[in-house]
Amino acid sequence: MGICSTKFVFLLFLLSAIPIAYLISLELATPPTHVYQYHSSGWFRECAKWDHLNSRFLVSFLEGGVAQLSLPKGSEGDDSTVTVLEELTLIKDVDLAGNGSLGIVVDHQRNRLLVVSTDVIGKNYAALAAYDLSTWQRLFLTHLSGP
Fold first, then answer.
1. CA-CA distance, 115 to 91, in Å (whole number)?
2. Across the 147 residues of the chain, what is the mean pLDDT of every consecutive 10-residue run?
3. Domain ranges of the chain
């Protein structure tokens, strides 16, 4: 009797179908809390932070840049509906073109957003940039890589 008999393959298929069916049922189930969804305009979003003073999510892109997802007025307490948020690109810095925005931190004390940018593939470039949270003007850009 071979290890790849028909019964073994069928049993393996059945055992792998059970966790997949469970994951699908979790995805299709109604969530117990309020859910915010959004459809991104890009391929991959690296980091998301909640800006509680402005009621918005700030999201960094793997392809470089930062967007905001603003909550509609009055949607904070409504648990009965699923809200689809619109992504609005705020930062697309030409000095950081070709580099990914891999991390963001909201600094409310100084009213700024800190963004870490790096060359994801070649790992030849790294920088830290700060942007004003109100005007989105760049405050500084510090190169962290070599000469």
1. 10
2. 76 89 89 79 85 91 89 64 82 88 94 92 89 94 83
3. 1-30, 36-143
Q: What pLDDT is recorded for position 147? A: 64
Phi-psi region for residue 29, left (φ > 0), alpha (ψ -120 to 50) or beta? beta
**Model's pTM, two decimal places?**
0.72
d(Cα 77, Cα 108) in Å, to the nearest integer? 24
β-sheet bridge partners, residue 103? 116
Q: Give the pairing type, strands 83-85 and 36-38.
A: parallel
Tokens of 134: 């109100």
Quote the strand ranges of 26-133, DSSP E.
36-38, 45-51, 56-61, 66-70, 83-85, 87-91, 100-107, 112-118, 126-132
Amino acid at 24: I
